[in-house]
Write a structure and sequence with these properties.
The protein contains eight helices and ten strands. It has 259 residues and is α+β, with helices and mostly antiparallel strands. The chain folds into two domains: 15-78, Winged helix-like DNA-binding domain superfamily/Winged helix DNA-binding domain (Arc Repressor Mutant, subunit A), CATH 1.10.10; 84-254, Chorismate lyase. The strands form three sheets. Strands 4-5-6-9-8-7 form a six-stranded antiparallel beta sheet. Strands 1-2 form a two-stranded antiparallel ribbon. The longest helix has 14 residues, at 15-28.
């Protein structure tokens, strides 16, 4: 074992949990940095005096929980931290990626005028068949797909949306610059993506995603409806309301730009 030994602090409970706590402590305190191999099952058996089955379960569960990646024949390695998007703050994904020192690129698959179906019309507060703007984009971080953006925009609020160059500027950036929004709604759910979404996000069959449905209003009109789909294994959404921040969070709609 190349890294220093840890003595598990947990003295009661299932042995596999003791092993998990031991490995997790080394990850969280920086002993084993992202990309570093952690002790093997046999090394854990020797160091902690547990059965190999116990060590195997501990490493397997840490992999399922996203702390480790397991490579056949090589061992278990500390997983790279997932990029994250702030759920309660509306931020441009290009800015988030740049803040991590990575490169953002965008594939624009659709950017056109179309007729709203009944679902989109209902979300935008329009009549079925009313004209709307529709864009479909895949956002990449260092060339890895991290978000599928399926967005509909109300032409009455953003009449020049189709003039935006969505390769040079994101839809978020454009709407921030051209439309003031005073109300935002988020709905998040875990989904299994359809075949087309899996292909666009380069996902294997059965890989879960996080789907964020976002609506923004300007006055009494809905500005945009965006379905943002993130690969569950590559991204996470976070949010916090509480303490001194709670009043500002509840009042954020008064000054939040459209996204």
């Amino acid at each position: 074992m190349t890294a220093r030994q840890h003595v598990p602090s947990r003295t009661q409970g299932p042995l596999y949990q003791v092993v998990k706590d031991h490995v997790l402590a080394g990850i969280l305190d920086g002993t084993w940095a992202p990309g570093t191999r952690v002790p093997s099952e046999q090394e854990l058996v020797s160091a902690l005096g547990v059965a190999r089955m116990t060590a195997n379960r501990a490493l397997r569960e840490l992999a399922v929980e996203g702390y480790l990646t397991r490579k056949q024949g090589l061992g278990s390695f500390v997983a790279e931290p997932k990029p994250q998007s702030e759920l309660l703050e509306l931020r441009n994904i290009a800015d988030e990626i740049a803040a991590r020192g990575h490169v953002h690129t965008c594939d624009v698959l659709m950017h056109e005028r179309c007729a709203a179906d009944s679902r989109i019309a209902g979300l935008l507060g329009l009549d079925t068949g009313a004209p709307v703007f529709h864009s479909l984009c895949v956002h990449r971080e260092n060339d890895v797909p991290v978000q599928l953006e399926d967005r509909h925009v109300n032409p009455a609020v953003a009449p020049d949306y189709l003039a935006a160059n969505l390769i040079a500027t994101t839809a978020t950036e454009y709407l921030v610059a051209h439309v003031h929004a005073d109300e935002i709604e988020h709905t998040v759910e875990a989904v299994l993506p359809d075949t087309a979404t899996r292909r666009l996000l380069s996902l294997r069959r059965g890989a879960p995603c996080l789907a964020l449905l976002r609506r923004t209003w300007s006055g009494d009109k809905v500005v945009t409806v965006a379905l943002l789909t993130y690969p569950g294994s590559r991204y996470r959404l976070t949010g916090r309301i509480g303490g001194a921040e709670a009043p500002r969070a509840h009042q954020a709609g008064a000054s939040t730009p459209a996204r």
